[in-house]
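Hey, can you fold this one?
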Amino acid sequence: MNIAIIDYNSGNLASLQNSLESAVKNNKQAFEVKITAVPEEVIKADKVILPGVGDFFYCKNELLKINGMVDAINYFIKEKEKPFLGICIGMQLMAKVSYERKKNKGLEFIDSEVIIIESESKEIRVPHMGWNNVYLENKSKEKDFPSLKNNDFYFVHSYHMKCKNKNEVLASTNYGKKIVSAVIKDNLLGVQFHPEKSQEKGKKFLEEFLDWKPE
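Sure. Predicted structure:
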């Protein structure tokens, strides 16, 4: 099976590739991990990952610079219906709209908006940076993603996703208030944290993504 990591000048590509290749070693299936900026390779993949660091406005523009990439992502998700994972800004890009820097249209896969983390406490600093517990919200997915049941993952973000459909919230974390840390919809999966920087728990989550077979 082929895993395509989309290269659009955003994301911890080398770290993610290394983490995936480490996760692959524990899997019974044979996987090839490839970083690519070629839309045709994304379409042909068995699983696709959209990473992302920085801000929504920059990442969206960089993605649009690759001719045909957004169309390839849409085709992979809607026509091939194979597993797709968004990481950090990659998850936020799946929203309908973001208000980072200015109002920006997302890929519109998840009925949600991306808004700034608000805090009235000096203990809750923005950006949200560091380790924080993740709690599984969608109990029906516990067998698929047991790593998301009360484990620490590494976060770096100032904006968070607010979902209209509670059934699409896979996991949350408490940072001043409850915020979404993972979403799921059909063959779509998104995480706000960085599995590639979350050591063993991050690798475990990536192993679960490799095994994931959306219904």
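The mean pLDDT is 95. Let me know if you want another pass with a different chain boundary.
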